[in-house]
Amino acid sequence: MKNEWMLIDHEKVTTFRFHLTIYSGQELKNLLQQAGFAQVQLFGDLSGNDYGINAQRLIAIVQKSNDD
């Protein structure tokens, strides 16, 4: 998602641009594994409940690979 905000204060205009990428759980897990993390666990909230269709959040717990 690309977004642009313009703040107009009298004659001064300030523009803010930002890009937000939204990942599914599987996409995030794949990216983390490709980045070299050994174990990737996904949770649906900070209490450690399962990640699924009704999850409030997407929480990833990862472990660094010992390959270094």
Description:
The strands form two sheets. The protein has a two-stranded antiparallel ribbon with strand order 1-2. It has a two-stranded antiparallel sheet with strand order 3-4. It is built from one helix and four strands; from the N terminus they run E-E-H-E-E. It has a domain at 24-68. The model has no long low-confidence stretch (mean pLDDT 92). A hairpin with a 2-residue loop joins strand 1 (2-9) and strand 2. The chain has 68 residues and is mainly β.
Keyword list:
68 residues, mainly beta, two-stranded antiparallel sheet, 4 strands, 15% helix
Layout: helices, strands, pairs:
Blueprint: E1 2-9, E2 12-19, H1 25-34, E3 37-43, E4 59-64
Antiparallel strand pairs: 1-2, 3-4
The portion of residues assigned to helices is 10-25%
Strand content: 35-45%
Low confidence ranges: none
Shape: elongated
Rg over CA atoms: 18 Å
Structural class: mainly beta
Largest sheet at a glance? 2 strands, antiparallel
Give, in order, the helices and strands: EEHEE
Q: Mean of the pLDDT scores?
A: 92
In the sheet with the most strands, the strands line up as 1-2
User: Count of helical segments?
Assistant: 1
Termini separation: 35 Å
Summarize this entry quickly.
The protein is built from 1 helix and 4 strands. It is mostly beta strands. The two termini are 35 Å apart.
